[in-house]
# Entry
Amino acid sequence: MTYRIAFLGTHHPAVPTLECLAERNWVACVILPEKAGSKNDELLEICSRNNLSWSYELQAIEQYAPNMILAANYPNIVPTQFLSAYPCINTHWSLLPRWRGVHPTAWALINGDCEIGLSVHMMEREFDTGRILAQSSVTVSPDTRIEELHTTLATLQAQTVLQVLESYQDTGRLEGSEQEELDAIYVPQRVPDDGIIDWTWSTKRIDAQIRALPVPLYPGAFTYLNNRRLIIVSATPAPSPEYFCTAGQVVRRRANGDVWVKTGDTCLIVEKVQWEGDDTPQTAAKILKRGVKLGYNSQQEIALLRRELNAMRAQLDALTKVQTNGSGKNS
# Structure
């Protein structure tokens, strides 16, 4: 069997997989999501280097007469007409049915998964369902950051896809197992505000959130200082016993530039921080003094808004008085 694959994908997760398929001359066409913009650049380079036809339009698939559709990090729904016309395979960066949805690797890191992997599965109408054809995983260490994980998974994905395709060539069957619906976990697309740190969480959980949302790849895990957003660029769990104290308070400031912040159980060593809108990280001790409390202070914000409102009222009263006096003189 000679493959003519319609490849759907974008960004770095898809790059090694497309390269492997192109090397074997298995690609009929490449379909890219137009909204991805510059995230398509690496795939466009592969298309140019290998003289691959590409389009933004899914409907263009038919003119290239593929015998399979393979999606890798493709964000759009594949219409039912294609699901019934071709074998349609998807890759998803989780060990399905765990972490069905968007940004699965971030959710897996935040939740402290020790094994994070990918699934190659048959497409169905609903996202991330369908028979599992193959899965591969990596062991996650306590200091694994998401960018390292993505690099590893991108290579592992290409290897796993090739195993599936080579098996299909040999047997003529796409054999797999049904997903266990009772084990399914669904997660939504993350938005920047999801990065807020709750200092009552455990140190392990806060550390995982920081490693899962590094700047500039992501908006970053953040807190507030005097109600101004402060991004935690790098941190690590402190060698501290569990004890009770005010969560979010800076309890130690060291000469090397880092600070210790009390969490819900132990302490977190905050090394680098940066203000929202500022691309320059600073050592934490330059901004955070011992005793300050991090986190959003609603009472402080209310007091500030009241002062601003009173100032506006005073300005309005003064303006009204001037207008009244002016009207009296004119009369």
In short: The domain at 5-187 is CATH 3.40.50.170 (Rossmann fold). The two ends are 98 Å apart (CA to CA). Residues 298-330 form the longest helix (33 residues).
